[in-house]
Write a structure and sequence with these properties.
A: mainly alpha, 79% helix, B: alpha+beta, three-stranded antiparallel beta sheet
């Protein structure tokens, strides 16, 4: 077995877990966030006070989406392509990547709060961040659609930066990313569901 | 440094066999995986996979758990700590040999 093939084999459990349900999950969270943010910007004064806290409600709900997507995975996906459970990140490279990402996110948020100039070009910057993240993931896993997400993220960042009024541009970007992930995820899940169910007896 | 041939001979024969190497590589980054996943990803036939899984289980490299989901049999495999250590060592040795070959 060549080194490349072995490296590829080692990545397959992680690749298998990219079955579209994660993208649907992210898509729903981003869409809800985008809609809340847009509603607050457009009709902020007319909305009840608790709406400004509703961002935070989405996070625990998103966490429970995981349980739901795991159930759907067990019911729809695993009988068709097999079941694999990857290691939960404890102190490995994945955890270091998550922590680094978290630190970068905090630095970016602080920079935005401090600088109005940065806030003005937020859709473009978010587009670049999403594009780079997807590109890095694609380089690692070689899942082609991640490259498509990278290109679409960058393209939507550019388009929204120039076409959409500044006061609502970031929210529009969030919604557009949500739509990209939702369409991608639904497309992948639909293709997987079309596969026949395989049991150990029927193989 | 040991001669190249000696290093090659000392490679873990249980893992060095291509089909078993594929199974071990697939299980290394997974906490557990089922028979269907291993079958699809390794490209082995059902009988072949079963016999290699049995050999790896006998060698203590993996643990195999057979159960039923309804009336359907479901086999889940996971690497044992000793299997993980053996695979890590195998990769290390293989890298050394590859490094010497240039």
């Amino acid at each position: 077995m060549s080194k490349d093939l072995m490296d590829d084999m080692l990545k397959r459990p992680v690749r298998q877990s990219m079955d579209g349900l994660n993208e649907i999950q992210f898509g729903i969270v981003f869409l809800v966030w985008g809609i809340i943010a847009m509603a607050l910007k457009l009709w902020g004064s007319e909305l009840p006070e608790w709406m400004s806290w509703s961002y935070l409600i989405v996070l625990p709900v998103a966490y429970y989406f995981r349980a739901l997507s795991n159930r759907l995975r067990a019911r729809w996906i695993a009988p068709r392509i097999g079941y694999v459970k990857t290691h939960s990140p404890i102190l490995g490279k994945t955890m270091i990547a998550i922590l680094t990402g978290g630190v970068i996110a905090v630095v970016v948020v602080i920079a935005y709060v401090q600088s109005p100039q940065l806030r003005l070009s937020m859709p473009l910057e978010m587009g670049v961040i999403f594009a780079v993240s997807n590109f890095i993931l694609w380089r690692w896993l070689r899942v082609q659609r991640l490259l498509i997400y990278a290109i679409l993220s960058l393209a939507s960042g550019l388009v929204i930066q120039w076409m959409v009024p500044d006061f609502i541009a970031s929210e529009t970007f969030l919604c557009s990313i949500a739509v990209i992930y939702l369409i991608g995820g639904i497309f992948v899940v639909r293709n997987l569901i079309r596969l026949p169910i395989a049991t150990e007896d029927s193989l | 440094m040991k001669p190249l041939a000696k290093q090659a001979v000392e490679l873990d024969r249980m893992i060095h066999e291509p089909a078993r190497l594929a199974i071990m590589a697939l299980l290394y980054k997974a906490e557990e995986a089922d028979f269907l996943f291993l079958l699809r990803e390794s490209g082995l036939t059902k009988g072949n996979l079963q016999s290699h899984l049995a050999r790896l289980e006998d060698g203590g490299y993996i643990a195999v758990e057979k159960s039923f989901v309804g009336k359907i049999p479901h086999t889940v495999c996971r690497m044992t700590p000793s299997g993980r250590k053996a695979f890590k060592n195998y990769r290390k040795e293989l890298k050394k040999i590859a490094g010497q070959l240039g």
